[in-house]
Design brief:
This protein has helices at 13-21, 34-40, 57-64, 83-89, 101-116, 119-129, 150-162, 175-181, 189-195, 215-221, 239-247, 267-274, 289-307, 312-327; strands at 4-7, 25-28, 46-49, 70-73, 92-95, 142-146, 165-169, 184-185, 198-201, 226-230, 251-256, 278-280. By secondary structure, the chain is of the alpha/beta class. The chain has 2 domains: 4-99 and 288-327, Rossmann fold (3-Layer(aba) Sandwich); 101-280, Rossmann fold (3-Layer(aba) Sandwich), CATH 3.40.50. Strands 8-7-6-9-10-11-12 form a 7-stranded parallel β-sheet, sandwiched between helices. The chain is globular and about 65 Å long.
Length: 332
């Protein structure tokens, strides 16, 4: 029997094509509400989501009562999937953990430069009469990378190439990785914040990281005049506390690819969007043609593998993608 796969969010067409070419029956149903998903999931062996659809315990239980065996996240994080419930129900969860790391790291560096050079103000000044805006160089500045995982490591390497002195804070044991990258570890977040001219965040969203950058961190620990960059998850930073720190001059600028509410619906996030010293992009870290293709291939291959489907076309595409990922200094 051909495996049935439900694609519940917009994905790169290569993902759908590869699944079909490897014998799967694929249905694309975008924009389904919770009730429809609860009815559909038991009919499929696997479901593909990105970041909008939340697969909580209730939906997973509904699917597991039927055919559902695999959940595939076409991206990096798993915060929209109840992984514990999936494990309890015997549902495999797969994703594309390294496919978009380079793209997110490049955007992080771009946002750092944009904030330091005050590009938002400079663009407005150019339109308003060609007034010059004076910014700052990153060379010689101290960077704190919070989360020295795949993306954080790439950012650290790029920042060192620019000439920044890089520190890192991570709750995991990353001593060997830090040594290899030439990064100095700090064992206390507050101390790291007090050293840094620029802080960049690369942690998953869970109960330990929600609002890890809050009022205390920004108003008491942070070095005055620092820049905050967030390309991880919006709720890692307390939006109201960030606004307060900006108004107090504690934070010189912020560059955010993510907000607590997306699209911005809270008063704090709307004010951040309009703030003259804040640059906001609409969660585009992984939104490059190259990254989305790699995500599609990595997701398709891992989904098929989890279903026990062997397919040379998918394996060949996966090997090619892995060569690119390894050339970026990452494991596939």
């Amino acid at each position: 029997m051909r495996p049935r796969v439900l694609v519940a969010e917009p994905v790169h067409p290569e993902l759908v094509r590869l699944l079909g070419a490897c014998g799967a029956e694929v249905d694309v149903v975008e924009g389904a509400d919770r009730g429809l998903l609860a009815r559909l999931l038991p009919l499929y062996d696997a479901v593909v989501v990105r970041g909008r659809v939340r697969l909580d315990a209730g939906l997973l239980e509904a699917g597991a009562r039927g055919r559902l065996r695999v959940v595939a996240r076409a991206g990096v994080g798993l915060d929209n999937i109840d992984v514990e419930a999936a494990e309890r129900l015997g549902v495999r969860v797969v994703n594309a953990p390294t496919a978009s790391s380079q793209s997110v790291a490049e955007l992080t560096i771009a946002l750092m430069i944009a904030a330091a050079r005050r590009l938002r103000e400079a663009m407005e000044a150019a339109r308003a009469g060609w007034r010059r805006v004076v910014g700052s160089e990153l060379h010689g500045k101290k960077l704190l990378v919070v989360g020295l995982g795949r993306i954080g490591s790439r950012v650290a390497a790029m920042a060192r190439a620019i000439g920044m002195r890089v520190y890192a804070y991570d709750v995991a044991d990353v001593a060997e990785r830090a040594r290899r990258l030439g990064v100095e570890l700090v064992d206390d977040l507050c101390r790291g914040l007090s050293l840094a001219d620029v802080v960049t965040l690369h942690v998953p969203l869970d109960e330990t990281t929600r609002h890890m950058i809050g009022r205390r961190e920004l108003m008491e620990c942070l070095k005055p005049g620092a820049i905050i960059v967030n390309t991880s998850r919006g709720p890692v930073v307390d939006s109201e506390a960030l606004l307060e720190a900006l108004e107090a001059g504690r934070v010189a600028a912020a560059a955010l690819d993510v907000l607590e509410t997306e699209p911005p619906s809270s008063e704090a996030d709307r004010r951040l969007l309009e703030h003259p010293r804040v640059i906001v992009t609409p969660h585009i870290g992984a939104s490059t043609a190259e990254a989305q293709y790699r995500v599609a291939v990595q997701t398709a291959y891992r989904l098929l593998e989890a279903l026990g489907v062997e397919c040379e076309e998918a394996a060949r595409a996966y090997r090619a993608v892995c060569e690119v990922i390894r050339s970026q200094g990452l494991e596939c």
